[in-house]
Amino acid sequence: GGLPMQDGSSRDAPELLDTIASLLKRDKCNTLESGGFFYLYGTGYLARNLASSAVKCECGLNAMRQRFLAMTKGGSNYAILDDIVSIALALMKDPVGNVDALAKIIVEICCNRDASAKLTHSNWEETWDTILLDLRNAFSSNLMVKNKEQPLRLT
């Protein structure tokens, strides 16, 4: 699914998300070139969870932060985090937020990105709160735009 609060899809099981994060940190899956479809699938799943958790679930955010820590243990994989955060932010800004929008966003971001990650070991933990604030602001702005476009209904 897309964003559960947008399309009514259900949230993902923590065990599935942990498994995906664990597989993405391996050398055979940690880049688009080496991981191929699984890289796209995995970054999309984790981005969807990050976006959804930023709005609804503090425990999901704590788990996501722990996944990020585990994925970067050893000082690498920052490009994955950058892709996950970029996908989550674009999904929050998307007016539809469904699975079709998510798929399009994943391909656009992962296949067209600059080779250098913006997030690094020295700054990603420091920017965690900023990342969450950006995600929440994007969702709030999107929600305000949607509410302005829909006519007021009196019941």
Question: Would you summarize the structure shown here?
Answer:
With 155 residues, the protein is an all-alpha fold. Helix content is 67%, strand content 0%.
Mean of residue pLDDT values: 80
- Number of DSSP E strands: 0
**Fraction of residues in β-strands:** under 5%
Order of helices and strands: HHHHHHHH
Low-pLDDT segments, ≥5 res: 151-155
Number of helices: 8
Shape: globular
Characterize the largest beta sheet: strand count, sense, and whether it forms a barrel: none
Q: First CA to last CA: what distance?
A: 31 Å
Judged by helices, strands and strand pairing, the structural class is mainly alpha
**Computed CA radius of gyration, to the nearest angstrom:** 16 Å
**Helical content band:** 55-70%
What does this structure look like?
By secondary structure, the protein is mostly helical. Helix content is 67%, strand content 0%. It is globular.
List keywords for this structure.
single chain; 155 residues; mainly alpha; 8 helices
Blueprint of the fold:
Layout: H1 4-7, H2 14-24, H3 32-35, H4 37-56, H5 58-71, H6 78-93, H7 99-111, H8 128-149
Helix pairs in contact: 2-4, 2-5, 4-5, 4-6, 4-7, 6-7, 6-8
